[in-house]
Design goal:
With 91 residues, the protein is an all-alpha fold. 47% of the residues lie in helices and 0% in strands. The protein has helices spanning 19-25, 30-35, 48-54, 59-76, 85-89. It starts with 18 loop residues before the first helix and ends with a helix.
């Protein structure tokens, strides 16, 4: 029997990343999306670029807020303790 220990790769923060994927991989970004008025329910399938345009905010400003939270969260994790979204949800 073969086991696979490969972890899914975190997606790159970019204009093409969907709101839903951002929330799954980086749940700490949810308050940032809410602060900017980004629709995280019905608009979750939109890309971050389109969501920023729909909310009438500069994409760079949205990404600066998201990046700051993601970087802070990543620095708080201890080395080697990164969990998949499913593992985090089961905590």
């Amino acid at each position: 029997m073969t086991t696979c220990n490969a972890r899914p790769t975190r997606p790159e923060l970019s204009a093409s990343l969907t709101v839903n994927a951002l929330i799954v991989w980086y749940p700490s970004a949810l308050p940032v999306l809410n602060r900017f008025g980004i629709d995280t329910c019905c608009g979750g399938a939109e890309s971050l670029g389109l969501a920023a345009r729909s909310a009438n905010i500069p994409f760079e400003e949205l990404m600066a807020g998201i990046s700051a939270v993601v970087e802070r969260t990543a620095s708080e994790r201890s080395v080697g303790s990164e969990l998949s979204p499913a593992a985090v949800a089961n905590r």
